[in-house]
Amino acid sequence: MSTAGRPRLVHVTTTDISLELLLGPQLSAFVDAGYEVFGLSAPGPFVERIEARGVTHVPLANATRAMAPHRDLLALGELRTAFRRLRPTIVHTHNPKPGVYGRLAARAARVPVVVNTVHGLYALPDDRFRKRAVVYGLERLAATCSDAELVQNPEDLDTLRHVLRIPASRLVLLGNGIDLTRFGTSPDDAARRAAARAELGVGDDAVVVGAVGRLVAEKGYPELFEAWRTVRAQYPTAELVVAGPDDADKADALDRATVAAATADGVRFLGMRDDVEELYRAFDLYVLASHREGFPRSAMEAAAAGLPIVATDIRGCRQVVDDGVTGNLVPARSATDLARALGTLVGHDDLRRSMSLAAAARAVQEFDQDRVIATTLGTYDRLRRAAGVG
Question: Across-strand partners of 150?
């Protein structure tokens, strides 16, 4: 279960992009803490960056974001075989699907310690009963195979405890965090802002609204594009910039016609970017129109960069945005309310400045990833002692 006395730790996600962009700094911290760390996911362009952290990547042939139950069953068997071969001390699962079949496979392989992070329950209390029954049933089943559930959002903590009846002893409120040294404000912000805006070809007087996220309808892009037509009519020099990759595996991926229509309305699409910390400095405010979030990293990153945020009033966004202080919350799926909130901030420099200062301060107080890492390592230590494994 270890090499040269180091406990072996396996993290499981669907894709390599999650291992790097969602978990990268944490994986590095676990390596530094003395663990022999493995990352299991579908292979992709981020594997080299993952392994540069001292993490061994093991490709999974059947991990997919698509709705493919037969592939998920194959992934369960594939993981069980991998766990029996690797003989890890700890398996830590992430994302909705690996969180289910990964926990089942780890327990079937008799892994001593099984941990899962709840990044955001895939069903919400106001979803249709059928969806809640399926999602909650699978979560309850998988949770019987774990020793700890690290829960990012306190609203999910309440659901897991009182609806799914997960024992309180297994639940740990984790929260979420980011690298404040990467996304936080710095003395050279003015120069970095000028460089980023020059790259975008944006003038000093233009108000730039930014959005970062996968191009899927669940992120609220259809409502955002509709709202933007109203905002642009009122403020013709304002700019909406969207950075994020296509996600063809998802049923709600934006089609080319939607993207073309938005482009015709003045929306700028940048595609996948590795330098989002620089893009935030080019923005004047941030928008997240999602229908579902767990504890959104992009909004935390934007807050750390000192951006006021317009976001939907849903689980996750409520934990990042202090309504009326660091930004504004609006009803989900309402292009009218979204346009009104965006227009207010686009048109009021003083309000943006005051919210900018409040957002940066909140990020320093509440969104530091070091606290998340410390909580996770503390959970590992506690569970290893309880299991009697080194």
Answer: 117, 172
